[in-house]
Amino acid sequence: MSAGMQQILLWVVMFAIFYFLLIRPNQKRQKQRNAMLAALKKGDRIITIGGLHGTIDLINEENNTIVVNAGGQKLTFEKMAVQSVVGENVQK
């Protein structure tokens, strides 16, 4: 095998390792997050990126309104601010 061929093979192997260790897992996480955001519905209990816990009261295309704790205060957040869903469809 020539030196040029070995160098090309080395680059291909390095790219494959980089792809399977970094790019692919990040794409899977992003796909799961997008599916979670698309599945949000009224009554879901959520946690925002800032750590606020609340229940979704209204969902729009760009933002959702959540009711925070028992105080009944309404705060408006972007959908992207939702970190996780901790309970599903807890209707009042």
UniProtKB/TrEMBL annotation:
Highest taxon of the lineage: Bacteria
Keyword annotations from UniProtKB, A to Z: Cell membrane, Membrane, Protein transport, Translocation, Transmembrane, Transmembrane helix, Transport
UniProt key word Methyltransferase: no
Primary residence: membrane
Topology versus the membrane: Single-pass membrane protein
GO biological process, one term: protein transport
Record carries keyword Protein biosynthesis: no
Residue intervals passing through the bilayer: 6-23
SMART domains: YajC (SM01323)
Coiled-coil portions: none
Record localization: Cell membrane
GO CC annotation terms, alphabetical: plasma membrane
PANTHER family referenced in this protein's UniProt entry, alphabetically: SEC TRANSLOCON ACCESSORY COMPLEX SUBUNIT YAJC
Family: Belongs to the YajC family.
Protein name stated in the entry: Preprotein translocase subunit YajC
Species of the source: Aneurinibacillus danicus
Gene: yajC
